[in-house]
Amino acid sequence: KCSQTRIDSFFKMM
Amino acid sequence: MFEARLIQGSILKKILDAIKDLVTDASWDCSPNGMSLQAMDTSHVSLVSVSLNSDGFDKYRCDRNLTLGMNLISLSKIIKCAANDDTIIIKAGDGGDKITLLFEAQNESEVAEYEIKLMNLDSEYLGIPDTTYNVTIKMPSNKFQRICRDLSQIGDAVTISCAKDGVRFGAAGDLGSGSIRLAQTATSDKPEDSVTISMQEALCQSFALKYLNHFAKATPLSAQVTLSMSPDVPLGEPLLFNVCVVEYNISDNDDENPSTIGFIRYYLAPKIDD
Known about the structure:
The complex is a heterodimer of chains A (14) and B (274).
Chain A: E1 2-4, E2 12-13
Chain B: E1 2-6, H1 10-19, E2 25-31, E3 34-40, E4 46-53, E5 59-62, E6 66-71, H2 72-79, E7 87-92, E8 98-104, E9 111-117, E10 126-127, E11 135-140, H3 141-152, E12 157-163, E13 166-173, E14 176-183, E15 196-199, E16 203-208, H4 209-215, E17 224-229, E18 244-251, E19 260-268, E20 271-273
Antiparallel strand pairs in B: 1-5, 1-7, 2-3, 2-6, 3-4, 4-19, 7-8, 8-9, 11-15, 11-17, 12-13, 12-16, 13-14, 17-18, 18-19
Helix pairs in contact in B: 1-2, 3-4
């Protein structure tokens, strides 16, 4: 089973 | 006052086709340097970034920075009303609640005018670090589209394994498995058909095909696509750069002197085994 990480956990909110 | 004129209106049609199924509402940021858009899909799994340089337009005027928030499905419906060889002109007044789109026929005998209502979007803007990736694969965009489509028949995810001499795309599912291996090509007369791999270390990562198939809708914009990735960072380390970037350059189709006038970049994190 694979899980998909959200992209906003990689980039900083400006 | 904002006015942007693009003789090759078909470029805008292709850009909308490449993002409208992924992102519903988004804001175009207009500055003297050009137009750009950044948005996440509704599930916040992928990010799309579009940039069009001001010098890619035949006429570009932006007196002050503007944010044009709009529904991309509505914009796409209206842009579809333009013929492929129409010139498209985008106009916005200062502080207006709408933009005007003009479609000029090539013989200049017919002009269509449409207006789109703007929206006030509370968009989350993400800072994308300017980083180098350990593995870069350049390949024909239609080949990438075909591989993603074919492997979707087999499974939900594609595993990309990259070594110096080639790259392998594989999928497995209930019915069986499949893989496509592409060898790096020698320098060829047709650069659009070439497969180029530049890497620091070997890599093997899995990505959701559902998103890659969305990204591949940008194929008509560019003959080549660039995949940029870095190997997995161990758990507990910051995962900052561990994303895949799928990039399509936007070129004007000037046969004698084609030039890059912008890009579409899609960002997606790898799937991780639970």
